[in-house]
Amino acid sequence: MPSKRKLAVIMFTDIVGYSAMMSHDERKALDSLNANRAVHGPLIKQHGGTLLKEMGDGILAAFDSPTDAVLCAGAIHAAIDQQGFTLRIGIHQGEVLFEDGDVFGDGVNIAARIQGLTEPGQTLVSADVYRNVKNKPGIRTTSVGEHPIKGFSEPVSLYDVVSDSERLPGSDPVSLTEPKHVRPIKNSRRRWMTGVILLLVMAGLALYKALDRGKEGPSDTSLTMAVLRLINLSEEGAELQYLADGITQELIEQLAKVNSLTVRPFSLIYPYEPGRLPLVQIANELDVQYLITGSMGVFHDSVRLSIELVNPHSNDVLWNGSYHLPMMNAPSLQVQVATMVNRHLNISLSPGEAKAIAEVGTTNGVAFDLFWRAWNEISKVTGEGFLNARRYLDDALKLDAEYAQAHTLMAWSYALEQHPMFSPNPLPSDEIVSLAMPHIERSIALDPESSDIYLVRGNVHKNYTLRLDQAKRDIDRAIAMNSWPKVPTSYCTCTILSTYIANGRYQEAMRLAGIAAGVEPDNFVIYSDQGIILTMLRQFSQAQQKLDTAAGMMDIPYVNFYLGSAYYHDKQYLKAIEHYEKARFASDSSILSFAAAYLTGAYLMVDDQLRSDQYRRELEAQVSAGLHHRNHAMALLHALLGEEEEMLIWLERAHEQKDGDLGSIMSELAFEPYRDNPGFQAILQRMRGRVD
C-alpha cells in the first residue's frame, strides 16, 4: 500500500496502572485489557475514526475531525468508568504519514507524549485540537499551561477537555466552563494553611476552574492580570501582614467581577514575595499582561495605600495612585483602586459590572480589620486560634450585623475546629450544627448569590448531619452559581471532593483531582488526595508515590496516616508501621485512635503479638474514657481483623452516638469486604439519613 501524508487527529489511550495490575492480579489485568478492547473498537468507529493498532494496554487511533476525536474520548472514559479501571488519553492534530495500515511522524510522537502527561481519568489535547473544539457545544476546555515535550525544542500548550459524552449514566452534570461573571471566594492567606484546612475531610483540592486561559486560551477581549501581595509598611510591622494580604485579596475579588479581566488568584501570587524577582519574570511565570504592585501601611488610626498598574513587558507604568484614609473607610480602597484600574485599561463597564464593583462586604473599616484578623487566627488551626477568631468575628458582627462574609467565616470556624482531624474530643455533632446553622442561615439571607455559604453548609451536612444528599445539593448549587470563583478556596476544597468520595464516586473524584493538579501543581494536598483515591482503587504503587510526594512537601500526621494505609493494604506492613507511628507520635486528634487500630493489625501481621495487644488496649482505654470517634475506630479495628459481627456492633454504636464519619468509612479500604453485607448497608443508610 503506497504511503500517504495528511493532516490527521491522533489519539493515544493507555490503561492506568496496568503493569501493577498485571503483577498483582493477572486475570483481572487480562479481563481489563479485553474490556478495553471491546469498548474502543465500536466507539472509535462510531465517531468516524480508525483504530490503527494496539500496543500492550495502549491503543492508537486516527480521526479526520478534532471534534469527533474529543467526543470519542469522552464516550470512552464514560464506558471505561463502568469497567472498574481508568484511562489516560492524549490527542494531537498534525501532519502524519500513513503507510501499510500504520502511522508515523511528529504528530504521532507528540500525541504519545501528551498522553504520558495526563492524570488518571483525564484527556489532554494540544493547542491545535483546542482551537477547533473550544466553542463547540457540549465540550468544555481548561488550560493546564505549557509543558516541555521530550524530543521537541518548544513547549506545547495543553488543555484538559471534558465532553457531555463523558458524563456517567445517572450522574448530574458538572459544569467546568469558565463563568462569564464571577465573585471569587477569598483564598487562604497561606499556601500551607490552604493545605492544612483541606485536611478536614480526606480530600482537598483546587477543583474546577482553569486559571491559565493564557495567550491561546482567552477570548479576544480578555486581559490578564495579577495583583501582587502588598508590601506591609505598618508601624506594627509583621503583625499587620494579615491586613496587607486581606486588602490584596479584596482587590483581586473586585477586579475579578469584570468580565473582560482574568485575574490570577491569591493562592498563585502568594509565593512571590515583594521585591524578590523582576516583575517581567513574575508576569511571564503567571502568564499575565499586567501587574498591580504597591504597599500598605497602618499609622495610628489611618491606612495609606500606594498602587501602580504596570505593563512589565514594556516597562510602562499605566497608572499610579496614593490613598490616605481613616481606618474606618478602609473597605472603600479596593473600590477606588478597581475603578481606576479599569479606567486606565480603557475597559467600558456594563451597568451590572459597575454596580458589582461598588459593592463591598462591609462599609465598616473596623469590622473589615476584625474579619481579616479572624482569618489570620483560623489559619493557625489551633484551639486558641479558633477562639480568638470567634472573638474577633463577634466584635465585627456587633459593628455590622449584616456582614455576610463574617457570618460565613463564623460558621466555618465551628465546622473546622470541631472536626476530629483537629480536635481530640470534639463537641457532639448536634451541638456543632446548632452553633453553625444560625450563621449559615443569616449569611444566606444577606447574600443568597454567594457560593461560599452553600459550600460551608454542604460541609456541615457532610460531616455533622451526615446528610450526603443535602451536601451534594449544596455543592451542585455552588458550582452552578455565577459567583463561583476562578479558583476554589478552603471552603470548597474542604467539601467537594470529600462528598464525591463519600458517595463512592472515586473515578470522578480522580478526574477532578487531575484538573486541580493543573491549577496548583505544587500543592501537597492534591498529591495526598490522589493517593487516597488511588488506594481505594487498589493502585497501591501509584498511591504510595503520590502520598510520599505529599509527605515530602508537608510531613504531617494526616499524610503519614494515609501513606501507612497505602502500604498496609499493599501488605508492606513494616513500611505501614513506620508511617502509622509517625502519624500518632505527632497528633493529638482522632488520628491517634485510627492509627492505633491499624497498628494493632499491622503488628499482628508481622507476628508481634505483644505490641499488637498494646495498641488494642490503648484504643479500648480511649473508648472507655468516652472520647469522640473511638467507636468508629473500634469498628475499623474489627474490620481489619476480619471480625464482622463485632465490626457491625461498633459501627452501629458509632451511628447511635453520631460519632461515625461517613466520608472516612467510604474512603477506608478496610470496610470494603463488608460493603455487600445487608447489616453494613443498613447502617450506612441510617447514617445518610435515608432510614429513620
Cα end-to-end separation: 70 Å
Question: Judging from the principal axes of the Cα atoms, what is the shape?
Answer: globular
Secondary structure tally: strands:
14
Largest sheet: 8 strands, mixed
Average predicted local confidence, pLDDT: 79
The parts where pLDDT drops under 50 for at least 5 residues are 167-221, 482-492
Residues in helix, %: 40-55%
Kindly estimate the percentage of residues that lie in beta strands according to DSSP.
5-15%
Q: Helix/strand/pairing class, anyone?
A: alpha/beta
Number of helices: 30
How many whole angstroms does the radius of gyration measure?
26 Å
Can you characterise this structure?
This protein has 30 helices and 14 strands. With 692 residues, the chain is an alpha/beta fold. Strands 1, 2, 3, 4, 5, 6, 7 and 8 form an eight-stranded mixed β-sheet that branches. Strands 9, 10, 11, 12, 13 and 14 form a six-stranded mixed β-sheet that branches. Strand 12 and strand 13 (302-311) form a beta hairpin. Helix 19 (496-502) runs antiparallel to helix 20, helix 23 packs antiparallel against helix 24 and helix 27 (630-640) packs antiparallel against helix 28. The longest helix is centred in the first third of the chain and has 21 residues, at 26-46.
